[in-house]
Amino acid sequence: MTDFAPSTFIFVALNCEAKPLIQAWRLKKLPQKQPFALYRNADIVVVISGVGKIAMAGAVAYAMAQFPDVAQPILLNFGIAGHRQQALGSCFLADKITDAETQRRFYPQLAFDASCPTLPLITLSRADADYSDENLRDMEASAFYEIAVKFSSSELIHCLKVVSDNAESALEKINEESVAAWVQARIADVEDMIAVLNRLRGSLPIPESELHKQLLEQFHFTATNAAKLHTLLNRWQVLNRAATFNLAGTKAGNAKELLAWLESQLEKNRYYL
């Protein structure tokens, strides 16, 4: 085990999705008892959430709580998804994420030249074989993205999916061996994605430590909201590189009002909807 803080967190739903990554990167499981399985080396953490939105949301929040000092982490949801006609084993980056239940939509920021093609993705509460549109189909991505944006800049948060089923090869044909083989064949794509995001991460501004400290001293923040403030200030700086943060202009009387103001400013710039 190493004491270095990792910069990249990869969230998968299934053990068979994680196994090829763990072997390729020689990751070691965190020894203490955990509600989610975490494997890591000096730079990367792979988290196995289990299937579904609730499991994924919990895994993201839990993993980030274990590494609270990592600034602007790379957060990647990787795993299988269905599609009406794309070939089994093909790989796509999500350019739009829709939650089928709530109809909330998220737009990952593609501030780089993607090494693989992009497609929209819809997250369902239960698997089905209705391939009625051109969306990728999974059961975790919307929850992953909704929680992940609380912990990092949206340019560094993405969903990379490998097609596991389509109209000609139904869900029932998926097995662990096939999934592991598809993932193994796409490790190079994951590594390329991490390399691109690491370069992007290095170009993003770091929040002014004095400003962050000032706001923490002036208002009462819970631990969760302090982490949220850190992320929002990062994103505010990306949009307002030359501007000075005017606290009086926020008209905030407490921490909740300040966070709401920051979020409203970011929403005006369509960082996510």
UniProtKB/TrEMBL annotation:
Superkingdom assignment: Bacteria
Listed GO biological process terms: nucleoside metabolic process
Matches recorded under InterPro entries: Nucleoside_phosphorylase_sf (IPR035994), SPL (IPR049539)
GO MF assignments: 4 iron, 4 sulfur cluster binding; DNA photolyase activity; S-adenosyl-L-methionine binding
GO CC term (a single one): endospore-forming forespore
Coiled-coil spans in chain: none
PANTHER family linked to this entry: SPORE PHOTOPRODUCT LYASE (PTHR37822:SF2), SPORE PHOTOPRODUCT LYASE-RELATED (PTHR37822)
Name of the molecule in the record: Nucleoside phosphorylase domain-containing protein
